[in-house]
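User: Hey, my collaborator sent me this sequence without any context and asked if I could get a structure. I don't really work with proteins. Can you help?
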Amino acid sequence: MTSVAGMPVMPDSGAPGPRGRLDRAAWTERAEAHAARADALTAEHRARQARREKHPVHDFLFTYYGYKPGQLRRWHPGAGVTLEDAPERAAWRWYSPAPGSEALAPDAAAYAAEKPELARLVRLMLARTAARPGQFGCFGLHEWAMVYRTPEHRHEVPLRLGQAGTDAVVEQGELRCTHIDAYRFFTPEAVPRNRLAPTRESQPHLEQPGCLHAGMDVYKWAMKLGPLVPGELLLDAFELARDIRILDMEAAPYDLSDWGVEPVRIETAEGKAEYVRRQRGFAERGNDLRMRILDAWGPAPLPAS
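Assistant: No problem. I've predicted the 3D structure and written it out in structure-token form, which is a compact way to encode the shape of the chain:
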């Protein structure tokens, strides 16, 4: 038996399946429903693209993560789930014939053999983050730290409290960011104010479920696993990332009233309370998705002898 972050993982042979079998009618119905759901989730973004319009809140999931709407609408059954009569998928990456059959299934062992370091990292990030207690005292100040004492801002949007008011909120609070991909955008003046100095190397040790960016990253990890994650689960992760992004920007220092965004005023006691309440809800949803992804992925395959 092996373990990830102290969690037992039973080894297996790495063979793709059996974790369920779908005939062609069943899997094509699921694939079509998935594509329709994905299209609905991305419709506004695609319409803005056609008009060459930008949105400071909702573009993030497509620009920062870099995954296109077409990638979201491609359905997979998940690791080891066998698809009957699916010859068009024979050349798809990380699909293998099921034992004793011409049917195909996403192959976790093939994925791990081709991307061993990524497979190990994703498993560690999902399991370790889910196993840790959430931290809920940051109040979204990471976005404020990105504009602290600088006239150069990531978004061409005015600051709700102005520069001096924004700086004062940072100085009166405490920066507790645990996430490298938020911390790395801090201004030079904000960096020494943070309680920690996250690095890429320390990320598996610092990531915790209360972090909004860690919650959005569940979508990233699911996408990186490709066909090993059921399509429905991938879209659940995308929806979580979308919902988190909204709070992330509602609590940010920007005046987004032109986009219909009402601020969560984290400079007040009421705003802090609302932020933490919603943050806790996202932590629960994120951990549920992490465990569902690990379950769908299955146990770590035995290393090649």
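In plain terms: Residues 53-66+106-297 form one domain. You can pass these tokens on to your collaborator as they are.
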